[in-house]
Amino acid sequence: MNLETFVQALPKAELHLHLEGAVNAQTFLKLARKNGTTLPSFAEVEELYRYENLVDFLQVYDLVAKSVVDADDFHLITYEALAHVANAGGRYAEFFFSPQVHQDAGVAYETMFAGILKAMDDAEHDFGLVSRVIPALNRELSIERGFEFLDLVLPFRSDKVIGIGLDYDEEPFPPAPFKAVYDKAKRAGMRLTAHAGEGGPAANVRDALDLLGAERIDHGYRVMEDPDLVARCIADDIAFTVCPSSTVILTRWRDLAAGDHPIRAMLDAGLKLVIDTDDPPMLQTDLAKEYRLLAEAMSLDRRTLAQLALNSLDAAWLDESLKREWRAAWAIEVDRLLAAEADA
């Protein structure tokens, strides 16, 4: 069994996926034309998805978001995003979306969720892919906007709307100021995660854990600058949702094969990693490809890849009884894949 077939077959979950970053270029163009969104000049539509850094990327991300206007638009992009996960062998997905950018474009929260929730149901029916949604705060906005965000989100809390996240440009906007917002979300029963340690220092990872109460960390690469924090995260079984292609395109770590790449260092240190896509069409990737890229660049064996896949379920915010049931079933599948590999 070749590597591509193996990683496709692995049962795995996607826990770090941005809905607005999961819009393929042709759909972006279609929605922009439909809704009158002005685009930069381009010869081929794929040129819109080229950027040198996170700030440039976020400008395109916002443009994509502003092209999504009505419930049918939200249904389309959600259904396509979840189909993309399923086509790469994903069995479960937790995805972020950015309601504030849509709100600022005049879209009602109810409109967003009418399309998103219907698409989640349709994807589960059509592909068997169970999904949950995590509304994410734009950290570049004010704390007051953060509380307004909760006023939108909390009335929609359900088994499908399970938590909140914190995203956009981390380096100038650390997590600590959002403590009160996270405290209120936690009291309301929301699960908590945050982007930290991607552009900002290891201290942001510590603050996301200690001040925000984050249960897992999105990206978190710079945690490796603080050995004591690394040891604590290992002891506390903190999961990090890492995105290989995203590091190559949007961070200063451009070579996955480099000995000092943080994902390599995190693996070697024994941190609990989950492999994810971040913004798959915008980064020209999918979930199976991220496993394959990491395996090829870092010479990971099949057993390590299998453990990373099981990590994705362990870190998921599923009902614990369902998680135990799935974990047992996934483990059987993984053992069969590894046995087939050993017999080949």
Would you write up a description of this structure?
By secondary structure, the chain is α/β, with parallel strands linked by helices. The chain has one domain (3-343): Alpha-Beta Barrel (TIM Barrel), CATH 3.20.20. It has helices at residues 3-9, 25-35, 54-66, 71-87, 99-104, 109-127, 143-153, 179-187, 202-210, 227-235, 244-250, 262-269, 287-298, 302-314, 320-343; strands at 12-18, 90-97, 130-138, 163-167, 191-196, 216-219, 239-242, 272-275. The protein has an eight-stranded parallel beta sheet. Helix 4 (71-87) packs parallel to helix 6 (109-127). The model has no long low-confidence stretch (mean pLDDT 95).
Q: In sequence order, what are the helices and strands, one letter per element?
A: HEHHHEHHEHEHEHEHEHHEHHH
β-strand number: 8
Q: Quick one: biggest sheet?
A: 8 strands, parallel
Q: How much of the residues is beta strand, in percent?
A: 5-15%
- CATH hierarchy class name: Alpha Beta
Query: From the helix content, strand content and strand pairing, which structural class follows?
Result: alpha/beta
CATH topology: TIM Barrel
Strand order of the largest sheet: 1-2-3-4-5-6-7-8
CATH architecture: Alpha-Beta Barrel
Percent helix range: 40-55%
Low-confidence region ranges: none
Find the CATH superfamily: Metal-dependent hydrolases
From the alpha-carbon coordinates, what is the Rg to the nearest angstrom?
Answer: 19 Å
Mean pLDDT: 95
Number of domains: 1
Q: Whole-Å distance between the termini?
A: 7 Å
How many DSSP helices?
A: 15
Question: What global shape is seen?
Answer: globular
